[in-house]
Amino acid sequence: MQPAFDVEHSDGHRVSHAEAAAVNLANWDDRVPIHERHYDGLRLLSADPTALTDVVRRDLPVLAELLGAAPGDPRPLAGRSLAHLQCHLGTDTVSLARAGASVIGLDFSRAALDVAARLSEACGVEARWVESDVLDAAAAIGTTVDVVYTSIGTICWFQDLARWASQIAQLLVPGGLLYFRDAHPAMLALDDADASELRLVHRYFEDGTALEWIDDSTYTGGDERVAHPRTLEWPHSVAEIVTALLDAGLRIVALREGTVLEWSALPSMVAVDGGFALPEAERLRVPASLTVAAVRP
User: Fold this and answer.
1) What structural domains and CATH numbers belong to the chain?
2) Which of 10, 26, 62, 93 is least buried, going by the fewest C-beta atoms within 10 A?
3) Taking the C-alpha atoms of 76, 263, 41 and 57 in order, what is their torsion angle to the nearest 10 degrees?
4) Where would I find the Methyltransferase type domain in this sequence (predicted)?
């Protein structure tokens, strides 16, 4: 989720998954050419064979720890197969490949995957790109993997977390690891238009209805606008996320909360090493990120 500070929004919309997916896909397809022009990661990865995205650089030490890799190992995913769900332009996917993984990137946008394929070719990185709704990921990918990775701006785009968790369980080999990191649900419930105080204005709990946003901007900034500004999103609480994974038969092995995000989710956030955080005086009042790791028994 990438809320802006001057958008229209309303709550309580009852829509089918198919309707929401079509609305959101139109918006994300519009973002692709804008993001391709403005993503620094595309140029950095192509120019430097050792480069990684900030997202993956942040996640790798935790992945290494969870997988039992040696501390400081630059390729902690070596010898492991990995499915990156909702991969968008593939910058994180290519970075994960550089960390040693045999990668599959899945996204619902064909346009995004075309950019990802060009990126992996330019980087000399072998990757498989799969076009699919994430809620149909297991059948679309058609094989099991050692690691399922999904990070930053993912689960807000659909309502059915039980089906999402089921796809992950089907994708993982026995002993395989899910790594999930995203904005913390508490952070997403705060007022994203007023920087004067931390104030709850959005739902924390999912009730079956969507939050509608009308926003023709995109998080790369600048003046470029999308033709389809409407998106539909769902809040998901920490308990809902964890329970969905447990109900799918997975075993939770880590749950962590952090103070830094890769984007400025609130107007009061300030630039820090690795992204954005609340001002120091408020930083410990509310978590900014949530990481959950789970294993298939």
Assistant:
1) 8-295 (3.40.50.150)
2) 10
3) -20
4) 85-178
Query: For residue 25, which of 228, 234, 235, 263 has the smallest C-alpha distance?
Result: 228
Q: What is the pLDDT of residues 32-56, one digit of tens each?
A: 999 999 998 899 999 999 999 999 9
Helices 54-67, 91-98: axis angle to 10 degrees equals 40
Q: Which of helix, strand or coil describes residue 270?
A: strand
**Please, are residues 130 and 105 in contact by the beta-carbon 8 Å criterion?**
yes
Q: Which residue has the tokens 């005086």?
A: 281
Give the residue with greater pLDDT, 9 vs 88: 88
* Sequential DSSP letters for 138-184: HHHH-S-EEEEEEESS-GGG-S-HHHHHHHHHHHEEEEEEEEEEEE-
HSE toward the beta carbon, residue 14, CA cutoff 13 A: 2
pTM: 0.95
pLDDT digits (tens, 9 = 90+) for 261-296: 999 999 999 999 989 999 999 999 999 999 999 999
C-alpha distances out from residue 125 to 77, 89, 116, 246, 257, Å: 15, 14, 11, 34, 32
